[in-house]
Specification:
The chain is mostly helical and 148 residues long. The protein contains six helices and three strands; from the N terminus they run βααββαααα. A hairpin with a 5-residue loop joins strand 2 and strand 3.
Length: 148
């Protein structure tokens, strides 16, 4: 990202960060007002120095606002939440039996799944297919927005 000969953990000025990320300096200053967790070091005269963790946060803010379509308020909330664990808990069979049966009926033929397969595995497979479809839609929308 930075090709300036500095160490990876070096402090960067607002101009260096803005140029590397393709943002304007006033946008970074605005984000400092809107996102309380974004607090670069300031020196005499108000000169800002971004630490590596500040830069990672700016990248996350940029991703949420410009690629994932969050509002500033929504992005602030998303950053305040603890990170989502990527572990899928197994549903209780009795409480989700109707849902699992419906998914089994809908996906068994299309996915070539065996009707005797574990319902939880069928659910995981169906969610995986749904995620792929949603990611494809998001990518198409991002391309359309970028071309306008």
């Amino acid at each position: 990202m930075f090709r300036d000969g500095k160490e990876a953990d070096a402090l960067r000025t607002i101009g260096e960060v803005a140029q590397a990320l393709g943002l304007r300096q006033h946008v970074l200053r605005y984000w400092e007002d809107q996102f309380p967790m974004l607090r670069p070091l300031t020196r005499a005269g108000g000169r800002r120095y971004y630490r590596p963790e500040d830069i990672r946060l700016v990248i996350d803010i940029d991703r949420l606002l410009h690629r994932e379509g969050y509002t500033i308020r929504g992005a602030r909330r998303a950053l305040d939440r603890p990170p989502v664990r990527r572990v899928v808990a197994a549903p209780a069979r009795e409480s989700h039996a109707p849902l699992i049966d419906a998914i089994n009926r809908q996906t068994a033929v299309a996915a070539g799944a065996d009707r005797d397969a574990d319902p939880e595995q069928t659910l995981v497979a169906a969610l995986s297919v749904l995620r792929q479809h949603l990611e494809a839609i998001r990518n198409r929308l991002a391309r359309e927005l970028a071309s306008t």
